[in-house]
Amino acid sequence: MEPRFVELLSGFLPFLDGQELTPESTLSELGLDSMHSIDLLFAIEDTFGVPLPDEDLNDTTFATAGSLWSAVQAARKAEADGGSAGAVAAA
Amino acid sequence: MSAPAAPAAAARSGATDAAATPRSLADRARLVADVAAEHAERTDQEAEFPVQALDAMRESGLLGLLVPVEYGGLGGSLGDLLDASLRIGRADMSAAMIFAMHCQQAAAVVKHGSPDLREELLPDLAAGRVYLASVTTEAGKGGHLLSAESELTSDSDSDQGLLAIDRFAPIVTGGAYADGFLITLRSPGATSPTQVSLVYARRDQLRITGSGDWQPMGMRASHSIALQLEGKVPGHQVVGEHGKFSRIATEVFGPLAHLGWSACWLGTASGALSRVLGLLRSPAGRKRFDLSSELLLTRLSSARQRLDTVHALLCHTEEVVSSSGDLSTPRNQLLLNALKITAAEQCHAAVNDLVDAVGLRHGYLKDSPTGLERALRDLRSAALNYSNDRLHLADGRLALLDPEVRLV
User: Fold this and answer.
1) Which structural domains are found in chain B, ordered by start?
2) ipTM score assigned to the predicted complex
3) Which among A21, A38, A42, A39 has a CA at the least distance from the CA of A30?
4) Where is pLDDT greater, at B62 or A57?
């Protein structure tokens, strides 16, 4: 996971309390709730310049730091490959 | 709701004497509704738990509606649950909610219970020996389902892995009459309040102290009192994995709560409309009311329209829940919340319309055979029960997550 992703995500985890964030870290246990998931999503879009596709917006994607990072990477790859993932953000 | 007849399983159930005779689900629900109706005026007046209606649920096999046939249950579907809730709700909303919430708890055990717990508990549920109450509220968390303050503690040295429960619950429907409880607690060793476990405890495993009086506006027979629960249970009574209650909430508690409550509310409003129509069409009613009054006709139409709207949404949501793999997606969550909000608003509004339609004598007095007075008080709770205001806040955020507006 890129350091800037870890730093961004850590800001949404009130119970991280200085623990190391690993790909296995469970986000809900660290205090990410559905009310703040939307803010996290916007922060990811701002930082990485890609929106997560609608089909990734579920509990599985937001389960762990690693699953969320995978979704971000997939979205970046899709964007780089000339996919239409940006269309939603522009809409 | 799509299966009009009883599940085939019902005929094979030998769980209780009553269930040994093949009976349709509709018969069982009608039996419970009739008993509930007989006692509803008194249990409402006295704010007493509907013991007779619960006994009828036990004897009819309905407490084991969602328990698979191999455990002696009726093996009923989600649609069966909604049909039965709707039917009982026509007679008494408190009894219907007690039933629907019990089934929600039973479904969690069926789907997420450990093999040992299922072997122990499901036959008792099927036989009607166990009525389950839900303990998910906690003082100070504002009704938030997915966090817990009281911790489940594990003392493996002295208690052979027993888990200790010590928990105050400000509002437990039927808590004084339940045979067992499903309780949310912070997981052993949890580092945050969002690591929540769900644990089953039998009444005889707990020291229970009731406190406080129950004197609400409506839903008076639901007897929802404050309880202090203390006791120890073995590890296999944890339902699902430690700390993973949110999964049960998404897959079982959330959808069954919104669907089940909505069915109860629709039942109550349908029963109210039916009794009003019965009154209007009776010989005395036709003398008393001008059935050609455009105002009256419009009000009847409006009430019926509201109920058809809720019914359609209920059926559609049931279908989505029954066929959808992942209920955590924004559009599925939005639909489930829309059902709850709409049913709460429209069922109350329909009965409110009917009060205007029939006026003071039959709309406002307790002793009218229309029962509108009690139905309206009961339905007033619907918007507050997991508050519509809070759901709208969640839905606003969820709407932002679905910019394409892909309706399900």
Assistant:
1) 8-130 (1.10.540.10), 133-239 (2.40.110.10), 245-400 (1.20.140.10)
2) 0.77
3) A21
4) B62
